[in-house]
Amino acid sequence: MEDIIILVDENGVEQEYEVLDTVEYEGNRYVVLIKEEEDEVVILQIESEDGDDLELVACEDGVAEEVYHIFKERNTENFDFED
To answer: Cα dist. 71→50, 53, 77 in Å?
Structure first.
């Protein structure tokens, strides 16, 4: 079963993302998401979590790169990564 998150973009349009993984990094939690039919992942910091409600915020590029590196190391057998 896939975990799906619906995010609303800056234009108010709902976008559906699949949750690929959650990663702990430097005391914070991050979620790695991907949109169907796309090759790039989106990494957002989990600001707060209340039941099924998540508050997600953008993270700095350097942090996103580190989180992606951790995600990639943990999932080399699950996904084909392009370098």
So the answer is: 24, 23, 11
Report if residue 35 sits inside a domain. yes
pLDDT one digit per residue (tens) for the chain, 83 residues: 469 999 988 899 999 999 999 999 999 999 999 998 888 899 999 998 776 677 899 999 999 999 999 999 999 888 777 76
Residue 81 maps to a domain: no
* Structural domain total, the chain: 1
* Cα–Cα distance for residue pair 42/40, rounded to 1 Å: 7
Longest dimension (CA), the chain: 36
Q: DSSP assignment, residue 53?
A: E
Both tokens of 4, joined, read: 């799906």
